[in-house]
Structures are given as C-alpha cells and as structure tokens.
C-alpha cells in the first residue's frame, strides 16, 4: 500500500510541481483541443475493443432490441442508477477532499467523471487520481491524492467483504472435486488475509504518518500524508457506508440487465455471483479499463453459467453494464476536460 501511495505522489509532483513554460499558442492548443482528442481516441479504442470480442455481434443486437423492447424501462432504470452510482462516488470524494478544500457536489461530480476518462488510458485506473486532482487548487493537489486513495480503499473493503460471502455461496453450487472449488478456497483464504490487513490500515491511517516520520526518505511525502490524521472513525464509517450503497447499486444494475437480456436469476444468485466477479476484477490487474470488457465477459461466463445457460444474454448484460457505467461517463468526462485549464499563464 505505501508503494502505491508513493508512486501516485511522485507522479503528481512531476506533473504539477514542474515549472511548465509554454508559449501562448501551445497553451491554447492543450486547453481547448485536449478534450476532443481524448474523446476521439477513446471512441476509436472502444471500436477496436468491440470488433475483436467473440460474439459481439449477438450481444450488440440484443442491446439494440432491448432499447425498443417491452422491458425498456429496466434499461432506463439501469442508466438512472449509473448517475446514482457516480453521484455516490462523487459524494465520497467530496467528503474526503474537504479536509484540504471545500468543493461543491457538482464540481466533485465533474472531477469524478474526468478521473474516469483519465483512467481509461492507465494501468489499474491510476489515472483516475490525476484526473480528479485537476479540480483541486494549486498547492493542495499533492495532499488530495492520499484522500482519493482513502475512497478507493473503502470501496475495496466492501468488495473484499462481500466477495468472501459470494465465494462461500458459490461453494454450495460447485462440486468439491472440481478445480473451481479448489481455486475458490485459495481465493477465499488470500482475500481474508488481505481484508484483515486493509481494514486495519483503513482505520489506522495515522500509523502511516508515524511510519513516514521514521523513514529518512519519507519526509517529502509527510506533508501530503499528514492530512490523514484528521480522519476519525465517524468520517471513515460514513465513506464506507457510501461505498456499500454504491456496491448495492452495482448489483441492482446487473439484476436489471440480466432480466432485460433473458438471463433468469434470483436476487441471491445475482448477489452471490456478481460479488465473486467484482472481487476477481478488483484483484486482477488490467492495462486500461477498455481491456476490462474481455475480463468482465470471461468472469461473468465462468461464474454466472452456474445458474444460467444463456451465454449470449450474459455477454449482452456485461456489455450493457460496461457501456453504461464506464464508457458513457468516460466520454462525458472527456468533454469536461475542455473546461479545465491545465496550464496557467505565468
């Protein structure tokens, strides 16, 4: 965990503390053309990702049919829940960031969408941190990274806790002699250890400050980390609760999408299966979130086919969630970059 934090801090210091000296024309070019450029690159990447996926024609056709079908309201509700989803994430970040800067909810929402766009081109969504801190005042951006990481840890804690419950649920539907049963046990054991360490770290953030005070080379990071001492259990539990609600919104979206595309599942099957899928996606590294589509499909098939043989429907539901929860917000965030002054006149 400290390595992740150190890496983020180094990147932010390199980007925002450097003495950028650009002439006026270059500044205008970057400020007013970066957004459309990111939008076009993202759109091209989406197209390339889709045409190389197996059965994407069938999934795309089912998506088109669902838009005009009798269960259209479920699709619309899933889209509405996308706004709720990112609204909850924005509120979490707003609560965390207020320790260095008070920002409006709308500004936090825009920062979250911009972070989603930046995450699309970086390994393990690391660019999400850099996208959000573009909305933080100069001089406070370095500190805001540690606060953003707190939000990520809270969501990871919920994913690991419910993921363990999902693994236990799946074990009742898998033969004890199967390879999958063995790997479920391995995953459960590893995640329980990681969860214990993560929850201890989450509620003892001040320990990190004390650790850096003892490390000779940790002094330059101390100013950014020291803000973590201001977090108390009440705030941390509030952020954790919002993470749980956001997780349940994810589950509800999948349940709606599965229903739209003819995948007959109970609520319990949806929760148990998706909890394991979310966990797998959280622990397996990805180069960009565009590559998550293939991983999302593969994980969904391996787990959800325990409850349904409608493979194409599972493909379509996974594609729909990927499109609604990640691609639409990323495209919106790319347009918001137009309003960010990346470079200031000096």
Would you give an account of this structure?
The protein has one domain (24-338). By secondary structure, it is mainly α. It is built from 14 helices and no strands. α2 (24-51) packs antiparallel against α14 and α7 crosses α11 (233-260).
Please outline what is shown here.
This protein is mainly α and 346 residues long.
Q: Any idea what the radius of gyration is?
A: 21 Å
Give the CA-CA distance, first to last residue: 36 Å
Low-confidence residue ranges: 1-23
Largest sheet: none
Number of strands: 0
Keywords:
disordered N terminus, single chain, 346 residues, globular, mainly alpha
Task: Give the topology.
Blueprint (H helix, E strand, L loop, with lengths): L1 H15 L7 H28 L4 H13 L3 H26 L7 H15 L7 H7 L7 H31 L7 H24 L3 H9 L4 H7 L7 H28 L6 H17 L8 H13 L6 H26 L10
Helix pairs in contact: 1-7, 2-14, 3-14, 4-5, 4-7, 4-11, 5-6, 5-14, 6-7, 7-8, 7-11, 7-12, 9-10, 11-14, 12-13, 13-14
């Amino acid at each position: 965990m400290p390595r992740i934090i150190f890496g983020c801090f180094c990147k932010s210091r390199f980007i925002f503390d450097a003495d950028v000296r650009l002439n006026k024309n270059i500044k205008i070019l970057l400020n007013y053309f970066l957004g459309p450029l990111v939008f076009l690159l993202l759109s091209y990447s989406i197209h390339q990702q889709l045409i190389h996926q197996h059965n994407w024609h069938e999934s795309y056709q089912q998506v088109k049919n669902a838009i005009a079908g009798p269960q259209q309201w479920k699709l619309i509700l899933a889209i509405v829940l996308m706004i709720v989803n990112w609204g909850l994430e924005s509120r979490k970040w707003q609560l965390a960031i207020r320790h260095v800067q008070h920002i409006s909810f709308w500004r936090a929402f825009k920062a979250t969408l911009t972070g989603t766009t930046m995450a699309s081109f970086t390994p393990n969504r690391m660019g999400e941190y850099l996208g959000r801190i573009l909305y933080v005042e100069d001089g406070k951006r370095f500190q805001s990274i540690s606060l953003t990481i707190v939000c990520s840890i809270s969501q990871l804690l919920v994913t690991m806790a419910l993921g363990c419950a999902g693994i236990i649920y799946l074990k009742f539907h898998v033969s004890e002699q199967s390879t999958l049963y063995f790997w479920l046990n391995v995953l459960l054991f590893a995640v329980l250890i990681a969860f214990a360490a993560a929850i201890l770290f989450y509620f003892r953030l001040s320990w990190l400050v004390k650790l850096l005070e003892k490390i000779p080379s940790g002094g330059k990071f101390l100013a950014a980390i020291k803000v973590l001492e201001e977090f108390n259990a009440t705030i941390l539990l509030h952020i954790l609760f919002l993470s749980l609600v956001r997780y349940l919104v994810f589950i509800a979206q999948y349940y709606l999408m599965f229903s739209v595309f003819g995948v007959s599942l109970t609520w319990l099957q949806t929760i148990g299966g998706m909890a394991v899928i979310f966990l797998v996606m959280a622990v397996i590294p990805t180069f960009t979130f565009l590559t998550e589509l293939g991983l999302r499909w593969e994980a969904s098939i391996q787990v959800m086919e325990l409850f349904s043989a409608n493979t194409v429907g599972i493909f379509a539901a996974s594609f729909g969630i990927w499109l609604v929860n990640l691609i639409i917000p990323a495209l919106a965030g790319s347009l918001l970059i137009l309003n960010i002054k990346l470079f200031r006149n000096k």
